[in-house]
Amino acid sequence: MRRLRNVKIVATLGPASGDYETIRALFDAGADVFRLNMSHGSHNETAARHAIIRKIEKETGRPIAILADLQGPKLRVGTFENETEELQEGQTFRFDLDETPGNGERVNLPHKEIFDALEPGVSLLVNDGKIRMRVLDCGRDFAECSVENGGTISNRKGVNVPDVVLPLAALTQKDRKDLEFACQLGVDWLALSFVQRPEDVEEARSRAAGRAFIISKIEKPAAVIAFDDILATSDGIMVARGDLGVELPVQNVPPIQKRLVRACRAAAKPVIVATQMLESMIDSPMPTRAEVSDVAAAIYEGVDAVMLSAESAAGSYPVQAVTTMNNVAMEVESDPTYRQIIESSRAGRKETVADAIVSAAREIAETTQIKAICCFSESGTTALLTARERPHVPIIALTSRIGTSRRLDLSWGMHCVTVSDVDRFKMAVVNAIRVARSDGFASETDQIVVTAGIPFNRPGSTNILRVAHCDERLIFSSDPE
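The chain above was modelled as a monomer; its predicted structure follows.
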C-alpha cells in the first residue's frame, strides 16, 4: 500500500478504536503511526492493541510504527468538602500539604516539590489555565496566593507552574514501569512527557537501552528555553500544544511551533505537531474551517507528522477524522505553493559525505525525470538525511532491519521496505528497482536514484550514488560487477 502524500498521520487508540475492525479502518483511511497512550488503559489493553497493529502489519506487508506515550508527572489539587468552590478575582487562596478536604479558602496540593520551587510573584494555573493565581507568600509547606482570574475549582483539577523549572523527574515510578513494559512489548517510539531539561531525556534513553527511540514532548516553557540541548539528546520531537498553550500566552504558541519545526528539520529529526488539530470531530463528522487551516499550516511548514488524540481515541468519528486529515494533506501537497514553501525553508547542512550524497540525490531528482530516491540504510540515518532534503520525488527506504523500517515510518515522505541483506552494490540496485516497480513508483522505462554505503551493513557509511534505469536486465548485461 502506497500513500499518496509525504506527511504522516499519527492516530491515538482508545475506547473508540480498540478493536481490530476500527484499527484496520484507521490504517486503510491513512493512519501511518499508532499512539498508545499510557495515561489510560491497562497493560493488557495496550498489549491487545499492539498485537492487532502487528497483525495488520503482517496482513498488509507494510511496516507500521507504534508510539507509546508516557504519562509523566500529573500535578493536581486534592479534594474539597463540597467537591467544587467558586473563586473570586482579588481574593486570597492557600495551597498546602494538609490532606484535610479543602474549602473556598484553601486546598491540599500534594506535591512538596512545587513548594520547594515557588517564590513570590510566580504564577499558578488551575484547571487548564482557567484560574490564574499569583504567589504572595510561600514556604516549604504552603503558598498564599492572590486570585487574578477566578472560576470553578473542583476535586483533583490540574495545576501548572509555568514560571519555574520544577525539581521533578520526567519519569515517575508509573512511567518507569510503563517504559519497561512498552519496550518488552516491542514499541518503536517512546514519547516522554514533562521534559524540562536534556537530563530528562537521558534517563529515558538509558532505561530504553536501544529498544525504542525517544520523542521529547515540548509542553513546558523550560523545554522551549532548553530546546537546542533537548533536541540534541532526542531522536524526535512532539510539539504538544495543549499544556504549552496553557503555560504560555496562546499567541506565543504559533511562532514557537514554527521555530521548533524548522530546528527539527535542520537536524534531520522527525517532528510531530499535536493537540486539538481536529478537536470538533470528537463530536462532529465535520471539522471547523479553523481546524482544517491549522492542520494545513503544519503541513505547509514541512512537519513529519500530524497527530490525532481524542479525535481517534474517544471520539464518535475516528475513521472520518483520519480521512479528513488525509484529504487535507493530499490537497495541501498538491498546491504549487507548498513546494515553494518547502524549498525556500530547506536548511540542510553539508558537513559529511552522506550529507553531500543525499543533497546530490535530491538535486539530480529535481533536474531529471527521476521517479524515486531509493536509499539503503541500516540505522536509518541516511534515510533521515534524505527526508531532510524534502525532495519532490518519493523516498524509498530499504533496510534489512524491521525495527529501522518501523522507526522510519514516522518520517516525512518515507516509503519503508524491509529487504534481505545484500553484499554487492549491483544487487542493491536490483532490489531497489524491483521495489520501485512492484510498489508502483516506476515502470521499466523510468529511472531512479540509488544511494548506499560500501561496505554494506555498516551504519553511517553512505558513500555511493547511482542513477539506475528500471529495466534490471540492463544491469546484468552491462555491469561488470
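Residues 77 and 109 are 5 Å apart (CA to CA).
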